[in-house]
Design brief:
With about 1550 residues, the chain is of the alpha/beta class. The chain contains 69 helices and 25 strands. The strands form five sheets. Strands 3-4-2-1-5-6-7 form a seven-stranded parallel beta sheet, with helices on both faces. A six-stranded mixed beta sheet has the order 10-12-13-14-11-15, sandwiched between helices. It has a five-stranded mixed beta barrel with strand order 21-22-23-25-24. A hairpin with a 2-residue loop joins strand 21 and strand 22. The radius of gyration is 44 Å and the shape is elongated.
């Protein structure tokens, strides 16, 4: 009904309606206006005093007057305060005044007495407060605090326990036990989230008021309320002694009424006044006026008793059609009644501590049953945080925190980060590709602390805490995606992690973000993977109700709620694993020790650090627990498990039973100590080559254990981390807690880096020397020694070949002394262990790896083997994998899935139980990879091999059958983190090629494929590869390996090509294109070989061969282009096991491939009737044709059908054929440049040899011999000048001296350089730029090798000639050659400035050719800046080498690590240049001239872009000057 437009026309009914609907006062107040006949024409004149005279309290009176004035002014009432203030009850206003405004209690109580709720408070002015007897000060303060609410987060309001006036005088009150509701009232924290719906607001207000009746009880009895320090003590007593049913029924009634809208509540009260039944009297009518839900509930329980009130409430709710609320109340109170019948429930659950242990350990005593824990936590208080230290002990994957103040002092996150490392994240950071998220957030390695609803320590809207309505719209999706990420089996192993909901404050309604996240988790994970730890039983009961109602789930078996937080903390802290002393110690300078803090250790994610007091004081050594632990650890190791530090500790404790030392123990120890004492290398790499399963890693760890007082020792546990990061962590370990650095011993196990280890060494060199601001000589202890354990099938041969540094090897063979030691150890084991003869790994070594012993073991174990059973299948798979991929494993969870086992965390059902009797050969290891998981493998590599042989011998079960069965199993190739690891092992088994016993070469195929080919041939091999390719669809290596097999073993080029194309389509990189080129090359060689044997000629063969050659060259060119484009990676690829074999960079294989094809084509052409090589004239025709001097039609030949068809084919392909000679020449030039100027790697010498052979063929085919020249002169005396030029060019070409790089090669060869210089002296007279440049260089080289030669020109002459040439070519010459000469001849002397030199340095960097990118490849300095003048100041590397009478390898090592520049001979010979470092760049300074210089070593300059004075030696490389041995001025 609409009101009349003006107040004066309102009837008293209109006034009543306006008060009820607009002002929203209580009906009793509106009724009083009616009773006093207040119509509009009188109401318009009302003042506040007139309203008060009607008996209306001050609060509503102010509100009515405020609304009336707004109406008279014609304006809408708009509050200047946040909207939540209007929703405060008078109790909440009281809480705000006391807790936040801090006014005197008497003022707050005065406002509450006058019904000042939030909607009244926002209407108050200063005078209104003064009229309530408040002083000016409090009145002004309240208004100011109200105005500031806009700029602050919504205040949290805690319920207050009042003490009424008449109780203040009570003498010496007694303190009875508190009931649950009382305890909750004391403890009740602020409600977490504000919601928009009226119902939820009412629930919030009324649930807090629900405590008041019980508070009044305590007041009457004079209770002194306990302080909040002991969060659990009072609660425990209350639960045991008090019957809570009446109070709980009251709470349930009040909560139900709170869900009624205001009109529905009035309807309820109306029916309550009229309610009559034989057993219940009516409540007097006047008592219900103005009562809210709390007061109504109190009235009913006082009048009817709790049970009577419950019956009346349910009956009236049904009368007013609130059926849903009635049923809800019946259900809740029915469950309560049912629960109250059980005595156990009212007592503290006797086994809650055991229950917590079982939930966390799956029935054991150690927390390591789960790989990771995920904690979801809501708001905590500072008092609670002190009892949450157990989080430091859990291996946390992430914490989902709903407390925006958690990172502030006193918060949970802040407390955790005081002793552990946690990276602070937002849910949105978990979006993207799994692997990149894992790497960028450092998951698995450090705890991720995710703020799911704001962070108050950060500014900005995105960091504000949101109410539920806004959180649902703005944040919920991101948090749900985070849950989805965590639940992804590719991230965390299913069943391998436990989710803990840690509820530290109440969750009152389903409209709470933490409840939404609970629902997200149960959608994506098994419910048994989620447990609940609740701070109180009250919090738990509401949580359980919500989960029961909304998720239809009983969480009681998975919940802890009756332990105090202190008890929870103590219970968890008492659990294992016991692997850390309270204070872990590291050696430091001067025989001192420092403490390794847990937080520092958290930061060193790549390193497993061995401490001085490792294993000490972790378990009481007199306890049975210690004894059992020792027996278990020793048993695991001697059976075949990985060695633990505990194994050495136990032997140290019992000196009479030492750890067995292998023969090479002392050698390795001496090798390490000598490096520390004698070597000048800051970082040394020592290799230990060993057979799989012969104790190589154990030996290395044993040595490390015994050297832990001399070194800070660590094992590299994360090979995926970049070498730069590893180096930084090693440097950090070196200087941890100490001003002086300590030497570090780093163990790298089964590294792929043996062939090229210098990158890691260089990074460590840089991180140590420059990170610590010192030079090698300044700190003898500033050393890092890398002990690199390399698993090898031929360790002794590899040791012999490896000559770049100190090495040792250990084989599967014991010396007599070692055998005696093993015999002795067996006798010792018999004293302490049952059946040590079942410690198979130990017994294999004791038997000196006796093949008969191992064979008998396998035969006995596999008796009655039934391959149709799942367990036999699984054992065969393990035997296959562990034979061909040593120490690979299948994850425990994958085995459970394969065996059809349910994930029952602590049932008696186990994989090892299911695998009987084969489990005697199996062991469970923890795998650090991919966040950590448990995997099963066969105890020893030799047992796995023997089992495979036995299966084939006795059961005709071949490795191909097992491989196909494995590839057939869908389970192994579905999504999952450990399945990815398993698939990688399968791929490695199929494609990884072992090193041949002799030399650096590898076998053409993996050992498995080699065996299958030998036993069964092509069909089986191809079937396996085809099946594997269908399983591993993203792997280019599988089809590539099949293509290689088909062309190498079967010469099936068409099908090989199909698979090579498939590999290329999966991944385009140099190797996939190279395989295509190699197939064509093999095809062409095969054809060529066949045609040589045939007597008849078929011109169509030529057509086919030219097409093959064309395709091959295209493939090799593509491979080379990709190789030139790709940067050399800083580290090996993380999944480098998936490659065909551990690869080096592609280098120049494509160029060599093109040369091979071109010379095959030349050979095929040279067999044609008119190009026959044996006939000099016909050979001349071929030469002229290929040089484009004549066309094919000009070649003399017999006129017949075959020759005519040949001519037709050659005419069609003439452009391709005549391009080959030019292309070949260009490639030779590229390769000469490459071999001359780029630092060597292991494959370079192989290429040199093959290229050298091809170059000799080139000379024979295209270069004119001296005899031919002589004949030419006689025939054409008038062409003497042309012949002279041709003769000299031919000489230069034959001696690889027709290029700038070719001349540089002659720095090591004085024999030809004089003739080369003479040739260029003649040729440059024609003033050709290239010849002039080469002439100047040949003069410099001749001077360095044979300075007395008559052909050597003076420094002045050469400088002038160069300056003239530089003027001619300018700064855009495509080659770096003239600018390189400028460095040599025009580099300023200490007393002069050459302003142009900087220009030439920049020009050399811009030169476009040759095509090798200097940015990504290390160049060689052939010449160095010496101390002389003119040409005397140029010193060649060879001249420097001649100062040292040592073998090439030792000399190469000195150059590699830069230590050569510490030698006296070098210091005396070279000039040290002064310069600066600025913004990470190095400059040589000459007066005002600053010349840019590149550091020669990656470790050359410090990080941080500091501007510093430096000095260095200068080398001249083709891409600019290089700075060696950079020393800082400070």
């Amino acid at each position: 009904m609409e009101l009349p437009p003006t107040i004066e026309k309102w009837t008293k009914e209109d006034v009543h309606q306006w008060l009820m609907t607009v002002v929203k006062v209580q009906e009793t107040y509106a009724d009083k206006f009616c009773e006093e006949d207040v119509s509009g024409d009188s109401f318009v004149f009302f003042e506040k005093k007139d309203i008060l005279d009607l008996g209306i309290n001050h609060g509503p009176a102010v509100k009515i007057k405020f609304y009336l004035e707004s109406l008279k002014e014609g304006s809408q009432h708009e509050s200047q305060f946040p909207p939540y203030v209007k929703n405060w009850t008078k109790e909440e206003v009281n809480q705000w005044l006391l807790q936040h405004v801090k006014v005197d209690r008497k003022y707050a109580e005065r406002l509450q007495e006058e019904d000042v709720s939030g909607d009244c408070l926002v209407c108050f002015k200063k005078q209104d407060f003064l009229e309530l007897d408040l002083k000016n000060g409090p009145a002004v303060k309240i208004l100011a605090e109200l105005r500031q609410l806009h700029n602050k987060p919504e205040p949290t309001l805690q319920p207050i326990l009042h003490t009424t006036t008449d109780q203040k005088e009570s003498p010496k009150p007694t303190q009875p036990e508190l009931g649950l509701a009382q305890a909750l009232a004391i403890k009740q924290p602020n409600l977490y989230y504000k919601t928009e719906s009226k119902t939820d607001k009412m629930v919030k207000r009324e649930s807090e008021k629900a405590q008041l009746p019980f508070q009044k009880v305590s007041e009457k009895e004079g209770i002194q309320q306990p302080k909040p320090q002991d969060l659990g003590a009072r609660r425990k007593g209350a639960i045991v002694t008090t019957d809570h049913r009446p109070q709980k029924i009251t709470v349930e009634i009040q909560k139900t009424l709170a869900n009624l809208y205001e009109a529905d509540l009035k309807d309820f009260q109306f029916h309550l006044q009229e309610y009559g039944a034989p057993e219940h009297e009516r409540i007097p009518r006047g008592k219900l006026e103005g009562k809210d839900t709390m007061d109504t509930t109190t009235l009913m329980t006082d009048h009817y008793g709790s049970k009577g009130a419950l019956q009346v409430t349910i009956a009236i709710l049904k009368e007013i059609n609130q059926w849903e609320l009635a049923h809800e109340l019946e259900k809740n109170t029915g469950a309560l009644e049912q629960k109250s019948l059980s005595k156990d429930v009212l007592k503290k659950e006797a086994n809650q501590g055991d229950k917590l242990k079982n939930l966390l350990t799956c029935g054991g005593n150690s927390l390591d049953n789960y790989n990771h824990f995920i904690v979801v936590v809501n708001k905590s208080s500072q008092e609670q945080v002190q009892y949450l230290q157990f989080l430091n002990k859990l291996k946390l994957f992430c914490v989902l925190d709903f407390d925006p103040n958690s990172v502030a002092p006193g918060g949970l996150c802040h407390s955790y980060r005081e002793s552990r490392v946690a990276n602070l994240h937002t849910p949105s950071q978990y979006q993207g590709e799994t692997e990149s998220v894992r790497k960028s957030l450092n998951l698995y390695k450090q705890t991720s602390w995710v703020f799911c609803n704001g962070r108050h320590d950060l500014d900005g809207d995105s960091n504000k805490e949101l109410d539920y309505r806004n959180w649902l719209r703005k944040s919920c999706k991101d948090v749900e995606q985070l849950v989805s990420f965590i639940s992804n089996p590719e991230v965390l192993l299913s069943g391998g992690s436990l989710i803990i909901f840690l509820l530290l404050s109440p969750v009152h309604t389903e409209k709470d973000p933490i409840f939404d996240i609970y629902k997200s988790f149960i959608k994506q994970t098994k419910e048994e993977s989620i447990i609940n730890i609740c701070e109180s039983q009250g919090i738990y009961e509401k949580w359980r109700e919500l989960v029961q109602e909304k998720c239809d789930s009983d969480i009681d078996p998975l919940s802890i709620y009756e332990l105090t937080l202190s008890e929870v903390n103590g219970t968890i802290m008492a659990l294992g694993p016991f692997n850390q002393s309270s204070e872990r110690l590291l050696p430091s300078s001067g025989s001192s020790f420092v403490v390794l803090k847990q937080k520092d250790e958290d930061l060193l994610t790549a390193l497993d650090i061995l401490c001085l007091n490792q294993c000490e004081k972790t378990i009481d050594e007199n306890s049975s627990e210690f004894h059992d632990h020792r027996i278990r650890v020793e048993e695991e190791f001697y059976k075949g498990g990985k060695v633990k530090w505990w194994n050495f500790y136990f032997c140290d404790k019992d000196k009479e039973k030492p750890f067995v030392k292998r023969d090479k123990y002392e050698n390795v120890k001496k090798m390490i100590r000598s490096q520390l004492k004698d070597s000048k290398n800051m970082c040394a790499l020592l290799n230990l080559f060993h057979h799989p399963g012969c104790g190589g890693t154990t030996l290395a760890m044993h040595v490390m254990w015994d050297l832990r007082q001399e070194f800070r020792c660590a094992v590299l546990k994360d090979n995926t981390l970049s070498k730069k990061e590893v180096a930084i962590q090693v440097s950090t370990l070196m200087k941890l807690e100490s001003e002086k650095p300590s030497p570090v011993l780093l163990l790298v196990d089964d590294s792929k880096e043996t062939e090229n280890p210098h990158e890691l060494v260089n990074f460590i060199h840089k991180a140590v020397e420059y990170g610590l601001n010192m030079n090698v000589g300044d700190a003898p202890n500033c050393k890092v020694i890398i002990l690199n354990c390399v698993r090898s099938h031929s360790p002794q041969e590899q040791y012999k070949q490896h000559n770049t540094g100190p090495s040792q090897f250990i084989t599967a063979s014991l010396k007599q002394e070692e055998q005696k030691e093993f015999e002795k150890k067996l006798r010792e084991l018999k004293e302490t262990h049952e059946k040590p003869e079942n410690f198979y790994s130990f017994m294999i070594m004791k038997s000196n790896f006796d093949k008969k012993y191992i064979k008998d073991l396998a035969r006995n174990m596999l008796e009655n083997f039934d391959y149709s059973s799942k367990k036999a299948n699984l054992f065969a798979f393990l035997a296959l994998l562990n034979t061909y991929v040593p120490e690979s494993e299948i994850s425990l969870s994958l085995c459970q899935d394969f065996l059809g086992m349910k994930m029952i965390h602590w049932s008696g059902d186990s994989v090892m139980g299911r695998m009987e009797p084969y489990s005697n050969f199996l062991i469970i290891d923890t795998v650090e990879d991919l966040g950590g998981y448990k995997g099963i493998r066969i105890l020893h590599h030799s047992i796995a091999s023997a089992c495979l042989e036995e299966l084939e011998r006795s059961y005709s079960l071949r490795v191909s059958d097992i491989t196909m069965e494995m590839l057939h199993c869908d389970l192994f190739f579905s999504v999952g983190v450990v399945k990815h690891s398993f698939m990688r092992s399968i791929q490695q088994m199929l494609i990884e090629r072992q090193r041949k016993k002799a030399g650096d070469e590898r076998e053409p195929f993996s050992s498995l494929i080699g065996k299958i080919h030998k036993d069964q041939g092509r069909q089986t091999v191809q079937e396996i590869f085809v099946k594997a390719s269908s399983r591993l669809v993203t792997s280019a290596s599988i089809p590539q390996a099949l293509a290689r097999y088909l062309y190498i073993k079967e010469s099936d080029f068409p099908e090989a090509l199909q698979w090579a194309e498939k590999a290329k389509n999966i991944k385009q990189h140099p190797y996939t294109f190279d395989t295509i080129g190699q197939i064509h090359k093999s095809n062409l060689k095969s054809n060529n070989h066949r045609e040589k044997q045939e007597t008849s000629r078929n011109p169509e063969d030529l057509n086919t061969n030219i097409q093959i050659a064309n395709d091959a060259i295209a493939a090799f060119k593509s491979a080379q282009e990709l190789a030139n484009e790709e940067d050399e990676p800083e580290t090996e690829a993380a999944d480098d096991k998936s490659e065909d074999y551990p690869r080096k960079s592609y280098n120049v294989s494509g160029y060599v491939g093109v040369l091979d094809i071109a010379f095959l084509v030349f050979e095929i052409l040279s067999r044609l009737p008119f190009f026959e090589e044996s006939d000099p004239m016909k050979k001349r025709y071929l030469q002229s044709f290929l040089k484009k001097s004549i066309s094919i039609t000009s070649v003399h030949k017999e006129d017949n059908d075959i020759n005519n068809r040949y001519v037709e084919i050659i005419k069609e392909r003439e452009q391709f054929l005549q391009s080959l000679k030019t292309e070949v020449k260009e490639i030779f030039e590229h390769l000469v440049f490459y071999f001359t100027n780029i630092k060597a790697n292991t494959s370079k010498s192989d290429f040199r040899e093959s290229v050298s052979v091809l170059f000799k063929k080139y000379v024979a085919l295209f270069c004119t011999t001296s005899e031919e020249m002589k004949n030419e002169r006689q025939c054409n005396p008038r062409l003497n000048l042309e012949i002279d030029i041709e003769e000299r060019r031919s000489f230069l070409e034959q001696h690889n001296a027709d290029t700038f790089a070719g001349i540089l090669q002659h720095l090591d060869n004085a024999k030809e350089i004089e003739r080369i210089t003479e040739c260029y002296a003649f040729l440059q007279q024609k003033q050709k730029t290239k010849e002039t440049i080469n002439y100047i260089l040949s003069n410099i080289v001749l001077y360095l090798l044979k300075r007395q030669s008559k052909h050597v020109k003076s420094y002045r002459y050469l400088s002038d000639l160069l300056l003239k040439t530089l003027q001619e070519v300018g700064l855009q010459y495509p080659y770096p050659d003239p600018y390189y000469l400028a460095l040599l001849l025009l580099w300023p002397s200490p007393r002069q400035e050459n302003t142009a030199i900087e220009t030439y340095v920049r020009a050399i960097r811009k030169s476009k050719r040759p095509i090798f990118s200097f940015r990504i490849r290390n160049t060689i300095a052939h010449l160095y800046l010496g101390k002389g003048e003119g040409l005397k100041r140029l010193v060649s590397k060879r001249q420097l080498d001649n100062n040292f009478g040592m073998c090439r390898d030792d000399l190469a090592q000195l150059w590699r690590n830069g230590d050569i520049f510490k030698k006296e001979a070098i210091i005396n010979r070279l000039h040290r240049v002064s310069g600066t470092t600025e913004q990470g760049e190095v400059f040589a300074n000459y007066g005002k001239v600053k010349i840019p210089v590149r550091p020669a070593f990656i470790a050359g300059i410090r990080s941080g872009a500091s501007t510093e004075k430096v000095t260095f030696y200068l080398g001249f490389a083709i891409n600019g000057p290089l700075a060696y041995d950079i020393q800082y001025g400070n």
